[in-house]
Write a sequence for this structure.
């Protein structure tokens, strides 16, 4: 920090031996933990930190990047950095409806439909849906939001024999989970979870950096002894966690 920079109640004057980026992180963390900066509060940008505190752009960038990785702040491309809400959670052993989860937290669910069309099954998809090679499935890709914050990409393939009108639904007002559960009640579910790096287009849709780790859930559901759908659910790792109770 330059000699003329405002003396810190900010980047920790109490520990002048600490690296500048670590002092800057403690400065931001103290504002958040004291309640001065509540969830959703806009955090000063790199440029603002450089001007107000006299740190270098590299220092400001590292501090904000690490705070985002630690889950304290959320960085949204083109909008800035904001104090993160408490990390959202989902019950991994169940088959939850994301709209219900969001409303239960007091949030507002929104969705954007990126794709809704019929496609022929290649070998892997035919196996996943237990359909003949070349059979038709319905493919949907939807981005789910909590308020303005994207929190999930849902990439789903559906067996049209069990949901013949799936392609005609308005999934900005109802979720595929809710629609399919009412039409073909789930008898069994198979789920796998792994840590992944999102593809570039997924990063754009979720407003995350390409380096941000994500959680990926792959799920198949059955009704009446048939596979209803195969879905891939992608969550930003800094915004979500999956829970399980025994």
């Amino acid at each position: 920090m330059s000699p003329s920079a405002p003396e810190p109640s900010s980047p920790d004057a109490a520990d002048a031996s600490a690296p500048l980026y670590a002092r800057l992180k403690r400065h931001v963390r103290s504002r958040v933990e004291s309640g001065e900066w509540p969830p959703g509060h806009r955090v000063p940008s790199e440029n603002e930190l450089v001007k107000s505190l006299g740190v270098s752009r590299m220092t400001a960038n590292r501090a904000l990047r690490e705070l985002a990785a630690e889950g304290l702040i959320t960085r949204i491309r083109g909008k800035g950095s904001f104090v993160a809400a408490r990390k959202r959670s989902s019950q991994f052993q169940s088959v939850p409806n994301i709209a219900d989860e969001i409303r239960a937290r007091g949030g507002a669910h929104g969705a954007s439909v990126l794709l809704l069309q019929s496609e022929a099954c290649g070998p892997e998809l035919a196996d996943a849906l237990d359909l003949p090679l070349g059979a038709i499935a319905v493919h949907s890709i939807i981005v789910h939001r909590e308020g303005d914050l994207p929190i999930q990409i849902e990439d789903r393939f559906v067996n049209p024999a069990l949901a013949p009108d799936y392609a005609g639904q308005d999934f900005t007002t109802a979720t595929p989970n809710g629609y399919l559960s009412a039409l073909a009640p789930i008898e069994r579910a198979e789920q796998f979870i792994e840590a992944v790096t999102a593809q570039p287009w997924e990063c754009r849709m979720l407003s995350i950096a390409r380096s941000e780790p994500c959680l990926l859930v792959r799920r198949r559901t059955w009704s009446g002894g048939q596979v209803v759908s195969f879905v891939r659910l992608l969550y930003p790792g800094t915004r979500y966690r999956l829970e399980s109770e025994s």
Q: What stands out?
A: The CA atoms of residues 20 and 146 lie 34 Å apart.
